[in-house]
């Protein structure tokens, strides 16, 4: 496989294209919008500069990776010609993805594998394809060029050969892959994060602690252990007899799913949607989202390097 195709050049797609290009592949990056394609080109260059600043990329290779290995195109036929692997990162909408997969099936070489980066959709229920053995989900985490995990979700008709080819492809890119054998919404990473999110809203709405204190508790408490012990090994350290006792007590009752949060509604109504507005739960002091994300990315890269040295990223 020499050529890879990424469809959708938004938040996820531009970064996915960059990861494949860094891995030495020729990449076609496709989007309906020429403006978004142009923006993705400059975002990729800015991401490469950040990697170079963290001493993880040779800046002399910037043009080679961003311009020679990646073709930016809004022609879907051209994007998939001669490709071996297609991953779509278009909007999370059933109709859009369904139509796109039909086009991909028609235009991509018959041996090409087709993947979706959907977060929650059961694509296996609605995708119409003549190659169901070559269709699966590869779910990345933002920012994809920094966070290693890719969840590979197997459909009822996906062949084992497809699973192994896709796993090897991503392993060789340096990603950490896990294979999820049956579809469930949110897979495993987002499900765990969503469960924690429900509790965060209960604590905030109930006035138990401030956003700052919840973040302190997460980062200086259980969060410090997470990269080393994960969520299961931690229980071996606690002692399974104690875990048994805690389970039996039923002292923790999960919150209901309210479907909304008054605090979030108020913040959004005030134009505080988070980093993109320079304010959300926190105030970012008038700094641009690029500046704030750059600072975050450098810290994440440092942490990732350290965890890699400890051998904790699998
Ligand atoms: N943002 C995240 O943190 C994240 C993480 C994991 C997975 N995902 C999933 O990845 C997918 C993309 O999310 P995103 O946040 O990058 O979205 P986004 O809105 O930033 O980008 C989507 C892009 O797809 C383009 N597009 C729409 N229809 C198209 C078509 N038919 N052909 C080509 N391009 C088309 C749009 O122009 C847009 O640029 C979604 O399925 C989402 O659930 C997102």
Explain this structure to me?
With 314 residues, the chain is α/β, with parallel strands linked by helices. The protein is 49% helix and 12% strand. It has an 8-stranded mixed sheet, sandwiched between helices. Nicotinamide-adenine-dinucleotide binds next to helix 5 and strand 6.
Note the main attributes of this structure.
binds nicotinamide-adenine-dinucleotide, 314 residues, 2 domains, Rossmann fold, N-(1-d-carboxylethyl)-l-norvaline Dehydrogenase, domain 2, alpha/beta
Helix-strand layout with pairing:
Layout (H helix, E strand, L loop, with lengths): L2 E5 L5 H10 L3 E5 L3 H20 L8 H7 L1 E4 L2 H5 L4 E4 L5 H14 L5 E4 L6 H4 L8 E6 L8 E5 L6 H13 L3 E5 L8 H17 L5 H19 L3 H6 L1 H10 L12 H8 L19 H22 L4
Helix pairs in contact: 1-2, 2-3, 2-13
Nicotinamide-adenine-dinucleotide (NAD) binds next to helix 5 and strand 6.
Summarize the structure in short:
The chain is α/β, with parallel strands linked by helices and 314 residues long.
What is the number of E strands? 8
Q: What integer is the average pLDDT?
A: 97
Give the biggest sheet.
8 strands, mixed
Reading the helices and strands in chain order gives: EHEHHEHEHEHEEHEHHHHHH
What is the annotated CATH architecture of the largest domain?
Answer: 3-Layer(aba) Sandwich
Q: Low-confidence parts, pLDDT < 50 over ≥5 residues?
A: none
Number of helical stretches of at least 4 residues: 13
Would you state the CATH class of the largest domain?
A: Alpha Beta
The CATH H-level superfamily of the largest domain is NAD(P)-binding Rossmann-like Domain
How much of the sequence lies in strands comes to 5-15%
How many domains? The number is 2
Give the CA-CA distance, first to last residue.
25 Å
Shape, please?
A: globular
Helix content bin: 40-55%
Derived from helix and strand composition plus strand pairing, the structural class reads alpha/beta
Gyration radius, in Å: 21 Å
């Amino acid at each position: 496989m020499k050529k890879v195709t990424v469809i959708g050049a938004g938040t996820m797609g531009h970064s996915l294209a960059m990861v494949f290009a860094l891995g030495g592949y020729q990449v076609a990056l496709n989007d309906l919008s020429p403006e978004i394609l142009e923006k993705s080109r400059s975002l990729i260059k800015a991401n490469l500069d950040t990697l170079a600043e963290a001493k993880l990329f040779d800046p002399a290779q910037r043009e080679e990776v961003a311009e020679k290995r990646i073709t930016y195109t809004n022609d879907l036929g051209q994007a998939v010609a001669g490709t071996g692997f297609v991953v779509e990162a278009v909007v999370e909408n059933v109709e859009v993805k369904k139509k796109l997969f039909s086009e991909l099936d028609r235009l991509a070489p018959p041996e090409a594998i087709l993947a979706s980066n959907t977060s929650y959709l059961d694509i296996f229920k609605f995708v119409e394809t003549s190659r169901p053995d070559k269709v699966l989900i590869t779910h990345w985490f933002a920012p994809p060029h920094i966070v290693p995990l890719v969840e590979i979700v197997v459909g009822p008709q996906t062949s084992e050969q497809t699973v192994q080819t896709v796993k090897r492809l991503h392993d060789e890119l340096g990603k950490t892959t896990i294979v999820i054998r049956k579809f469930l919404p949110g897979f495993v990473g987002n499900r765990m994060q969503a469960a924690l999110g429900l509790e965060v809203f209960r604590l905030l709405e109930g006035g138990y602690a401030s956003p700052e204190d919840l973040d302190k508790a997460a980062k200086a408490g259980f969060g410090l252990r997470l990269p080393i012990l994960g969520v299961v090994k931690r229980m071996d350290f606690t002692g399974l007899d104690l875990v048994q006792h805690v389970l039996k007590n039923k002292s923790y009752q999960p919150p209901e799913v309210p479907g909304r949060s008054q605090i979030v509604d108020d913040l959004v109504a005030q134009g505080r949607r988070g980093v993109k507005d320079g304010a959300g739960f926190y105030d970012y002091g008038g700094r641009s989202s690029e500046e704030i994300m750059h600072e975050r990315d450098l810290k994440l890269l440092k942490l990732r390097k350290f965890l890699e040295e400890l051998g904790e990223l699998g």
